[in-house]
Amino acid sequence: MSDFAQNGLITTLQQLGEDRSPTLERELARFAEKRPIALVLPCHGGDLARPAFERIVRELRGADFLAEIVLSVNAATSEDMIRAREICAPLPQRVRFLEHDGAGGKGRNVSAALALLCTEARVEIIALQDCDVLSFRRENLARLCFACAHPELGYSFAKMYYSRATDRLYGRVSRLFFAPLLHAIIRLAGHHPLLDFLLSFRYPLAGECAFTRSVAAALPPADGWALEVGMLCELFRRIDPREICQVDGGSGYDHKHQPATTALTAMAHEIRATLLAHLASEGLNLSPAPLAAAYRREAAAALRRSAHLALINGLPFDAVAESKIVESFAL
Fold it and tell me: Quick one: which of 50, 175, 186, 234 is 20 to 30 A from 22 by CA?
């Protein structure tokens, strides 16, 4: 049976039946004539030389629904930018390049691009796409933009979700840290509207999303690893959940995997600090020790579920390594 379940506070737009990408892209291009669409590609300079970036650009050559592409790059050398301009030269859309120093990372890349597009006010829909996705498919971007551009749908914000499993389970920060942390907070403090909102997303840490220009203009500048969580918390305060959806990005999603003992730990700690700050602004303050204990219980349950999921699908699962990751995430 196709997955058409609707759980949580937001609408889930699954992909049902056979692929209808050509028709959808033609319709989207027609909608984009009245509501132009821009794509922001936040990128680290090192990603410009990787195969994923060239694949994304090749796919975008056929994206007739896009009016403009903004490549917002940090920590790039002059050679990196020369290469990026050469790779992007065949694109039929208007392409612009924003360069930043190494500080700020993806958050600064996104904020600068959104500020530019909102100030100019030439486009009505803005999409974000990470540049390290080896499995990028243009049709997934089209489905994401379709949710905001179609006049009968009219969503103000759409977030993509996808399976983080290829030859093994990935998505470690999501399944071993963020989801258990949310459940740990509920265990201690009970249900809260912001927590229920965040739990409505199948993959809240996904970087791919689309929103109207008015929504983009209302978002405060963001920084660091916690960009996605901070954005969702801000959207919770600004938009009715009925204007928000999540769009099925399919399976086989593959991007650059961060080292478990370094970047993932730093990412988790930034996400925790951002989430707790937003909860505190909602009047929910949590004591560190009880939260740490509750997280460990929920993380143990998440480890068990991950092991069972891997087993039933015939995927390898290193219980010792995964347990060490949880220890590095521990509060």
Answer: 50
